[in-house]
Write a structure and sequence with these properties.
Number of strands: 4
Mean pLDDT: 84
Largest sheet: 4 strands, antiparallel
Radius of gyration: 25 Å
Number of helices: 15
Order of helices and strands: HHHHHHHEHEEHEHHHHHH
Oligomer: single chain
Distance between the termini: 45 Å
Shape: globular
Structural class: mainly alpha
Length: about 425
């Protein structure tokens, strides 16, 4: 709650314009704020499992969680900085809110959470049962033994996505269902007999337009001081325009002479697309360099980037299969997945690095990897689940344009959790051996 309040205060203080991609940055920030707390509490619980007192476990838990939180957040902050410098329009808006969210989430996790937990301890809440339920240490799961199965599943999903794109293109439908931001469309100006509110337009008019045009990314805009509503859809053929006019007449008793339509050009230029792609590539290179610098092993960096690419390709395939329109929300969704995926991966790598430091020379490398993934499994599930629930609520309660953002994001969160647990450790192990 404190994190959310601080973010809203900063957005207001600096008068930052909030766009849909900007909201995506806030959602990712909330996910990472929860993530940081889960990492801390999982560490505290581990220390208590080893028989330490509550006070010592709290102290050691915060210390050990520090490197994973800092590395994960700094990596995403690098991406946000590059996107802000190199991106334009919606990409810049996303980068701004994401950077604010990351800085505030680190502050709340490492300062506010520590103050609250120590305050509970100081006022007398010192019983171990309040912090921890005794539990046997989990036996390491043999993730590396199943690596071939995981790789085959990933390859089938990625190749399947490309195959669907090819089939769509061969049928003349385009690899993706591009929205009017990318391809332009038709703007229909309708003068209604009454002044509809924005809520009424979303509830009554938009569903009928979606049904007639088959476009699930309809944009509407009220003309101030009049009963006119501008309805923007994908490019409509003559028969579709006539069908839309008839639907307005039949459902809202509109005078057909008060309906006009014109074709409009795209709002996302080729230059903006290139800017977004270049920004993502440059951000990825900088993230790779940072991970290499921090972990002193290029294999950690390379496997993290491969896993990130894996998540992006699977979500691209989902866009092609589900025919979800590719517009401004597409850029926001892809950027969110890039930020979230890398953060989850770094937590596992941080644990592998720590285990390598403590293990004897006779310990098998595969045991170290399996143990590290198993130890961080609970954290991976919890953090993915909390962010998934948040996005699922957006999907259930949002309007169609929000749903088209939330659906692929849910797929991306599941992919991010899967690649972090099942792919990255295996990739690093294969490169190492």
């Amino acid at each position: 709650i404190i994190y959310t309040e601080l973010v809203l205060l900063i957005l207001n203080a600096f008068n930052i314009t909030l766009t849909l991609p900007g909201i995506a940055g806030i959602i990712l920030g909330i996910g990472m704020a929860v993530d940081a707390n889960v990492i801390i509490f999982a560490r505290v619980r581990e220390e208590m499992t080893r028989g330490k007192s509550v006070k010592n476990s709290l102290k050691t838990g915060f210390q050990k969680a520090m490197s994973a939180i800092v590395d994960g957040n700094v990596t995403t902050l690098i991406a946000a900085a590059v996107l802000w410098l190199k991106g334009s329009g919606t990409v810049k808006g996303f980068a701004q809110t994401l950077a604010i969210g990351i800085i505030v989430s680190m502050f709340t996790a490492l300062v506010i959470t520590r103050m609250i937990v120590y305050a509970f301890y100081a006022v007398g809440l010192r019983n171990e049962k309040l912090y921890y339920r005794p539990k046997k240490e989990r036996t390491p799961i043999n993730f590396l033994g199943k690596k071939k199965v995981f790789f085959v599943i990933s390859l089938v999903l990625i190749i399947g996505g490309f195959a669907v794109m090819g089939v769509n293109s061969s049928r003349g439908n385009g690899a993706f269902a591009y929205s009017l931001e990318f391809e332009g469309g038709t703007s229909t100006n309708v003068t209604f007999n009454e002044d509809y509110s924005i809520e009424e337009i979303d509830e009554k008019i938009v569903p009928i337009v979606e049904e007639v045009t088959g476009d699930h990314n309809v944009q509407t805009q009220k003309v101030a001081g009049t009963n006119q509503v501008v309805i923007k859809t994908v490019t409509l053929e003559l028969d579709q325009r006539e069908a839309l006019n008839q639907a307005m007449v039949d459902n809202f008793q509109v005078d057909e002479s008060k309906i006009s339509a014109e074709n409009i050009s795209s709002t996302v230029s080729n230059e903006m697309r290139q800017d977004a792609i270049i920004a993502v590539i440059v951000a990825t290179i900088f993230m790779l360099l940072y991970i290499w610098f921090r972990f002193k092993d290029i294999r950690f960096a390379a496997s993290a980037i491969f896993a990130l690419l894996h998540d992006v390709l699977i979500v691209l395939g989902f866009y092609a299969v589900a025919r979800i329109s590719v517009g401004n929300t597409f850029i926001a969704c892809m950027l969110t997945i890039v930020g979230y995926s890398i953060n989850a991966t770094i937590v596992i790598f941080d644990r592998i690095r720590e285990e390598l430091h403590y293990q004897s020379k006779t310990t098998e490398l595969s045991e170290v990897v399996n143990k590290s993934i198993t130890q961080t499994l609970t954290r991976s599930i919890y953090t993915s689940l909390t962010t998934f629930v948040m996005v699922a609520i957006l999907f259930v309660m949002g309007v169609s344009s929000i749903r088209e953002f939330a659906a692929p994001l849910m797929v991306g969160i599941i992919c991010g959790a899967y690649s972090s647990v099942c792919i990255t450790g295996s990739l690093w192990y294969i490169m190492k051996t």
